[in-house]
């Protein structure tokens, strides 16, 4: 039995997230079906990040076990022939039989895109959150510094989270601007349920002038979800990369 690793990219618009569930089609389900047809085996992939409904990815990581003798790097091309246009395997290789995408230390990079202008752009409607109010990017950048480091992120986590600990480490958080597009780039060792979307919502509140950048510290210390910004729509969120240490 061999373990094959995949780097998976997808447009999450038409899917109910990564993890297989009864109420709609998911990335995991589509991949299982495609690989099972290729190998003739009952395949159950294991994903590194179980992204929510509507979230996109450039570089999610998954593994599956197989007896197929195909060269490891050829799996990407063979699987892609059986996938819809909105899911693609970017790379495939073979790893040790006990290598697990969720049990190895890693750094995850996500982006959250905000289209900040008076009129929405239709071609961005599925890939960025539209914000009508003029945002102060410099204040958002100042606020972003308070998130960096190891903290208790209870205030920035939805109640549905099943994590054993609310403590996470954020290595960097940048707020970039390219004309009307503001992109929040965040790198960390892992994220709680809806954590990035809540951080993005909180930064937008700062950008709107609802509260000063330093108020992030008070929100964090309170450990109260009600004090942070709203959970932003999933469509603006993209898993960019997972780097294994």
Distance between the termini: 25 Å
Helix content: 10-25%
Oligomer: single chain
**Could you state the order of secondary-structure elements as H and E?**
EHEEHEEEHEEEHHE
Mean pLDDT: 96
Query: What is the strand tally?
Result: 10
Rg computed from alpha carbons, rounded to a whole number of angstroms: 19 Å
Task: Describe the main β-sheet briefly.
Answer: 10 strands, mixed
> Which overall shape is indicated by the principal axes computed on the Cα atoms?
globular
- Find the structural class using helix and strand composition: alpha+beta
Q: Count the helices. How many?
A: 5
Extract low-pLDDT stretches: none
Strand content: 25-35%
Polypeptide structure, described:
This protein is of the alpha+beta class and 245 residues long. The chain contains 5 helices and 10 strands. Strands 1, 2, 3, 4, 5, 6, 7, 8, 9 and 10 form a 10-stranded mixed β-sheet that branches. Helices cover 20% and strands 31% of the residues.
Give the SSE layout.
Elements: E1 2-10, H1 27-39, E2 46-47, E3 56-66, H2 75-80, E4 87-95, E5 106-116, E6 129-131, H3 137-144, E7 149-152, E8 167-178, E9 181-188, H4 195-208, H5 215-222, E10 237-244
Helix pairs in contact: 3-4
